[in-house]
Each structure stands twice: as C-alpha cells, then as structure tokens.
Specification:
Length: 449
C-alpha cells in the first residue's frame, strides 16, 4: 500500500507539472530542470520495483500515463504496436526509459536508437551488413558456441548472469569483426555493460565525480574501437557507411553499441530465460531434447537445416520473449504539441515529449493474449512486439541472429553437454535490468564426450 500511494502521488505531481511546463516552456532552463527532477524521482522508484510501478499506474490510471521525465507511457498491445509503426520516427538519445545524459560514456556518439534520417538509415545498413544470416553461417556459429560452452565445462558450472554475457560478447566480436577478445577484454566489456546506468547521470557527475568508475570503461571502449579498425571486415563497413556520409567514429561506435547493448545484453538475457523455462518444465524440456535429437546427430556442427527444422525450439524462444522480453521499453519523440487523455483528465504535452511503449505490459495484455501470464506455445506470434515487431523501420536488425544463436546454444546444451542439478530459477522483476534468471547456476556442468 505504501508503494501504491507513493507511485500514484508521484503521478498526480506529473499531472500538475504538465500544466506548469506548458507555461514555462518544455526546453527552457527551468523546464529542463523540472523534467530532470521528475526523471530522477520516478527513476528511483522504478529502480527498486519497475514492474509494480508500471502495473500500479496502469491499473489505477489507465493504459496511458506519465512516467519519468513527463514521458507518456503506452502500456497496451495495440498502443505499443501503433507506436512502433510510426514512420518516420524521431528519436532522442535514449535507451528505453533511460536518458543518456553523459555523452562522454559513449565517446560523444549517440546510440543508434538516437539517430534520425540519413544517419539512422546508414547505420541500419551497416548493421544488416555486419550481422550474418545464422542458417548460412551455422557451422561457424556452432564452433563458437561449442568453444564457449567447453570453457564452462572446465569450471564445472554455467552461471546464467555471469557466463552468458561473457560468451555472447566474445562470439559477436568473432562474427562481426573476426577478432578474438582476450579474457581481460571480455571482463572489461562485461563491466562496460553493467556500468551503462552511469550514462544516465549528468555528464559532469559521470565524467568527473565518478571517474574512478567510468574512466576504465571509457578507456576500454576507446581501445576496442581501435581494434575494430584493424579488422579484416572494417573496410566493408566503412565503405557502406560512406554511402550515407557516415564517418569512422560513427560507424565504429555504433557497432560497439550494437554488440554490447543489443547483442550481448539482449540476447544473453533471452537465452538465460529460455534455459530457465526449460529447467522448470520437464515435459517441455524432454520434447525439446527429442527435437534436438531428430535434427542433429551431434557429430559435426549443426547445419542451417537443423536450425530451420527446430520449430518447437523456435516457439519456445518466441513465447519466452513474449513473457520475459529482454528489451522492455521502446522510445521516440513527439513531433508536435497537443493534449493527451490521462485517466479522466486532458493534459497538455509539448513537442519533443518522449513517447514510451511498455513492451512488457503489452506482451501480457489480456485484450491480445488469452491467459497472458501463462506459457503457451499454441499462441499466434505474428505480431509479437519483442524485437520491435516486424515490417517497419524500427524492427530489430539482429532478430534472426539472436534467435539463431539461442537455438544453437540449446542444440549443444541438450546434445553434447549435461548438468546434474541447478539452483533456484527466479526472474527478477524489481531491478531495472533485463528480465532473466540471473542467479541460475547449472551445476556439475560437463561435456558428454
């Protein structure tokens, strides 16, 4: 009850501030200061209980409500789907609900999600060139996955929260740049990802007051980007980017973000959730093992055909992505001012206001999915919102590779590896991190051969 009162009281404050901002100006000095205060007040609550925060406002206010910095949150499936399909979209330098206020942490390059127009189109072209088709690169993909799992077998356990991101960042650098990271570089990349929240602080605080935390991460990013430019594939990316007037700094930094944020953080989180689902459901796990045995004999590396024929596993991945989306919010900016109905009130909003979509609540919308909190493989996944849906400019360019990587991990996990026990499987719905059972450990992890 205390949290509910706090969340609703904060929203009433947002209602009052919407009218004040309309008078003082959205981007005036005082307007920015007011919005920053709102951002941190809501942000502190969401850091501790983000799911409860969303549902308290949704259940008591409606499918649209204010959140963080006067952003308008859309929470239903229909609203979020419509928001994703707006074209062209205008984006800010935001990662979902997180505002990137410390450009120094990103080497003064905007996130690819914060790019617009020709710059956005060009970076997407580079991404599509850099990300391989998993069925065409299945053999190489299998070798990389097996190499990663063999290291876990040496240590005798597979820790979901610690090991999977390290595996993923190493694999993606091999796939995108054909470079091998050292263990020190892998550790530094993992630290960079965990420290991303530091970029949501004002630049002065992040760069100077917290330099003991941010400087090592920034130096790692600088060193790794220089390595990218020595890659045998770098000239290809540079040539593609040049067609859109992109320079080397933009291309290298955007590829860094693609690998570390979308690729590593996102795919490893979803893989962890898939493993968690299969640990808990013995019957489903046995069905998946039967399919794995049918599509692959375990001798050579799996073929693209094996990935294409893993239809049950594909449905498991899609339903897991619906229930536990690794990306939970999508963001864009309004292109004009207007009024929005919040509960029973009409509230003004300004040009440049953030329009947020809650993928998590939309994926569990009872108006779209029957028994939305249940795991059900018979669902229609044609308009699933994870990976930002399909058929428009916002769709995730790495969707096929993400699914292919998870399929490949599962093929090896259930054919060539084994474990004798596992710890509690629990999804974290409190901390504002990707939804995955981070503390799950597969114990007695070993190769079957």
């Amino acid at each position: 009850m205390e949290l509910k009162n706090k969340v609703l009281k904060a929203h009433r404050r947002q209602i009052r501030f919407s009218r004040i901002l309309a008078k003082v100006g959205y981007n005036t000095a005082i307007g920015k200061l007011l919005r920053l205060g709102l951002y941190y007040m809501d942000g502190l609550t969401m850091l501790r209980a983000w799911r409860d925060f969303l549902y308290i406002r949704k259940d008591n206010i409606g499918d649209k409500f204010f959140a963080v910095d006067q952003a308008i949150m859309h929470s239903s499936h229909a609203q979020v789907r419509e928001l994703m399909q707006v074209e062209p979209q205008v984006r800010g330098n935001d990662l979902g609900i997180i505002r990137i206020l410390a450009p120094s942490y990103m080497l003064n390059n905007p996130l690819s999600l914060g790019m617009n127009g020709n710059e956005h189109t060009g970076i997407r072209a580079v991404f599509l060139q850099a990300l391989p088709n998993p069925t065409e690169q299945a053999e190489f993909l299998g070798q990389l996955v097996n190499k990663s799992l063999s290291k876990a077998a040496i240590q005798g356990q597979l820790h979901i929260g610690n090991d999977l991101p390290r595996m993923m960042v190493a694999i993606l650098h091999e796939l995108v740049f054909q470079i091998s990271l050292s263990e020190e570089e892998i550790t530094a990349s993992a630290a960079y990802i965990k420290g991303l929240a530091l970029a949501s602080l004002p630049n002065f605080i992040s760069k100077y007051l917290l330099s003991f935390k941010t400087s090592p991460n920034i130096r790692h990013r600088q060193r790794l980007i220089e390595r990218y430019k020595q890659s045998p594939r770098w000239s290809l990316y540079l040539a593609t980017g040049a067609q859109y007037q992109l320079n080397a700094h933009q291309i290298a930094n955007s590829l860094f973000d693609m690998i570390h944020i979308a690729g590593t953080a996102g795919t490893s989180a979803l893989l962890g959730s898939v493993i968690g689902v299969l640990c808990l459901d013995n019957a489903l796990r046995n069905d998946v093992i039967s399919e794995v045995n049918a599509v692959w004999d375990g001798k050579d590396t799996p073929s693209g055909y094996a990935l294409a024929q893993s239809t049950l596993l594909n449905k498991v991945i899609l339903e897991t992505a619906r229930l536990y989306p690794p990306v939970r919010f999508v963001s864009q900016l309004s292109t004009e001012r207007g009024e929005v109905e919040i509960g029973t009130q009409r509230c003004p909003f300004q040009r440049g206001t953030r329009l947020l979509g809650s993928i998590f609540t939309a994926n569990r919308d009872a108006n779209r999915y029957k028994n939305p909190d249940n795991f059900d493989l018979t669902r229609d996944f044609s308009d699933i919102l994870s990976w930002n849906g399909e058929g428009h400019e916002r769709v995730c360019p790495g969707r096929a590779l993400s699914i292919g990587l998870i399929q490949m991990f599962c093929l090896y996990l259930f054919k060539n590896y084994q474990w004798n026990s596992f710890t509690e499987v629990k999804w974290d719905f409190e901390k504002v991190t990707a939804v995955t059972p981070n503390n799950l450990v597969l114990q007695g992890f070993a190769s079957k051969r």
